[in-house]
Amino acid sequence: MTDQIAVIPGDGIGQEVVPAAVQVLDAVDPEFAFVEADAGDAVKESTGSALPEETRELAADADATLFGAAGETAAEVILPLRRAVDSFVNVRPARAYPGTDALRPETDLVFLRENTEGVYTGHESRLSDDVSTLTRVVTESASERLAEFACEYVRDRGEDRFTVAHKANVMKETDGRFRDAVVRVADERGVETDEALMDALATHLCLRPEEYDVVVCPNLAGDVLSDLAAGLVGGLGLLPSANVGPERALFEPVHGTAPDIAGQGVANPSATILSAAMLLEYLGHDAEGQRVRDAVEATLESGPCTPDLGGSASTADVTEAVISRL
Ligand code: NAI
Ligand code: MG
């Protein structure tokens, strides 16, 4: 059956890197049906809505979505899009590739970040001129769902353990519940866990990233720790991500619209092409996903490369080089 892929380039370099990734997908699996839709600053200017209803519905119905980035309207676009696919986990690999100038070349991590709750549920109040509060939400069900995903994720990689990041020594009720639920589900499935206090983990990741592999985190901790890891591998142009739900998923580079280079044709397409490789694997095309990954890796190692990695190649040059290595 032909899988339907929603393609939402968005603003800025999204308009350059998403078509590049679609070209790569086209080269490996012509069975996909691509349907393109608008979102972001430009469409808000013309229609009044950063996320038109037909775009939201397209993502909610498609087998998978490939998204670029939105500018000022990023929150108006990406949060409802993640909800449209009912995404409960944000998968963020951070890997240092040979041939790139990574701060920590031995880094090869994957963050599995809770994507629905924690401190990002929007329950904030101003109680007085002096006092503001935030209510943090942690549920047993969301923690279990994340842990079940994590167990399957490590098993698929042929591994049997992951790290749980938390701060349950201070947030005894909320992170305590998170930790207990994740560890219990892993125990039931015969997956080993080690625990790390998230602040100490930040230091350890900088000093000895090679000691970690898959890290399961509450929402805010996952946001911060994965951005820290992005620094270790050197460059936003290299980091893909997946927002996975029970039946749908949305794939996007970690970077934004890069207004400083947008329109010049020099954006690094690697993050989006690697997101497309995750999309292929999500839809069961494991061999094709691996071929794309290998082609990106070979291109990063031997060139050509875009200016962010010290080269002078264009987005199109890099995309052609990846396709020729498939
Ligand atoms: P950014 O990721 O767009 O850019 C940060 C720096 O990294 C810039 O110097 C940029 O040129 C460089 N960079 C990013 N991606 C690159 C690529 N593929 N190739 C080469 N260089 C690259 O983050 P910034 O500047 O904080 O945000 C710019 C806009 O993007 C803002 O309007 C922000 O709201 C939006 N944004 C959207 C996101 C989304 O839609 N998911 C995520 C992050 C930011
Ligand atoms: Mg972030």
What small molecules are bound in this structure?
1,4-dihydronicotinamide adenine dinucleotide, magnesium ion
Read across the widest sheet, the strand sequence of neighbours is 2-1-3-12-11-4-5-10-8-9
Q: Please state the structural category.
A: alpha/beta
Figure out the total of helices: 11
Q: What spatial form do the alpha-carbon principal axes imply?
A: globular
Approximate helicity band: 40-55%
Taking Cα atoms only, what radius of gyration do you get, to the nearest Å? 20 Å
Q: In what range is the share of β-strand residues?
A: 15-25%
Description:
With 326 residues, this protein is of the alpha/beta class. The chain contains 11 helices and 12 strands. 43% of the residues lie in helices and 19% in strands. The strands form 2 sheets. Strands 2-1-3-12-11-4-5-10-8-9 form a 10-stranded mixed β-sheet, with helices on both faces. The protein has a two-stranded antiparallel sheet with strand order 6-7. Bound molecules: 1,4-dihydronicotinamide adenine dinucleotide and magnesium ion. The site of magnesium ion has 2 residues, from α8.
